[in-house]
Amino acid sequence: MINFVKNHFLSLNRILENRLLLNTIYLISIIILFTICLIFFLFDKKNKYYNFYYPFLIDSIFIELVIWTIPTLIILGIAFYSIKSSLLINPLNKIYNNIKPLIVEITSMNWKWMIIYPLQKVVSFNEICLPTLIPINLLLTSNSIMNSLCIPKYGIQFYCMSNCYKTVSLLILKHGFCHGFSNNFSGTGSQFLKISIFSTIKKSFFYWINNIQNFNFLSISDYNKLSKPGVFSHPKFFKIRNNKIFLSIIKK
Question: Are 144 and 108 within 8 A, CB to CB?
């Protein structure tokens, strides 16, 4: 059902970030090449113009305009492109305003991740499945101390803090598998705060959701037990009756 993709960036955010980085390098290389050519021309003694003297070029306004205008225009172009692209790839912005996104609520615990699908009324621990080519809104918070969610292949890294939440917009282009983790030290078990991430086509995603709906309901005792500090090696899945668990965690 899932093909493992290792050599491709899975997220639109990551592709745009790499394109921005490469285009910026290309633009900066113009200045470097221009400087190298100028230095080579001025200090090359084999150049036939090396020993020539041009008195009328002393204090030339035209030369000053050329040597200052061209680099200035290049730097302004790089700055404009970088600022515009940075605003475009800001993961806090919505990707599509005319398409209803999939809402996924992620809560960090000590030391596990709880993922809630409020509309589908299912919850998973340490495993998340996301559909491709569908806008996704990730809502992040913490049930205890501050942690962070870092998914290198998606190009996102955000902190999860208690009593507040942060929204991340995401669009996945390719199906595959990757890992997420917390790069924030939050205790002796923070190295186990990892999450398995599957990106699948829409049909496989709803198949995954339907399988979870065959599990038991998440009871209050189950939640209290899972919210205590500890780790487990295998993901856990539950269906839920109340889809306001995430809101109650924020307001506690």
Answer: yes
